[in-house]
Amino acid sequence: QVQLVESGGGSVQAGGSLRLSCAASTNTFSVYSVGWFRQAPGKEREFVAGIRRSGGNASYLDSVEGRFGIVRDDAESIVYLLMNRLEPSDSAIYYCAAALVPAISSNELRTARDYNYWGQGTQVTVDS
What we know:
Elements: E1 4-7, E2 10-13, E3 18-24, E4 33-39, E5 46-51, E6 58-60, E7 68-73, E8 78-83, E9 92-99, H1 106-109, E10 117-118, E11 122-127
Parallel strand pairs: 2-11
Antiparallel strand pairs: 1-3, 3-8, 4-5, 4-9, 5-6, 7-8, 9-10, 9-11
């Protein structure tokens, strides 16, 4: 069982930046692909960014491409979501998730049901 703990959420003005952290309770974090998802009130959970197991590439939701970055530090068992030029539409609860899939496809990386473990979420609010 892997526990994931998100932190770094908060309130920020439009155009600002936040860095979310996802800390894992395992020292074998490098074998997991990690995704960030978000859910706004009244909306379905959506994929934001994902990064494959150690050395793998990253994928992004089109609307955050170029503004957000996902970075992993396997030595510390942490994955970061760097969010820049935030917009009010980015407001949501952000969740990190880990998937133990040996060769995760692009579609699986973007699909919530393919993840094994989830954090409790952290709130991001962007004021206009």
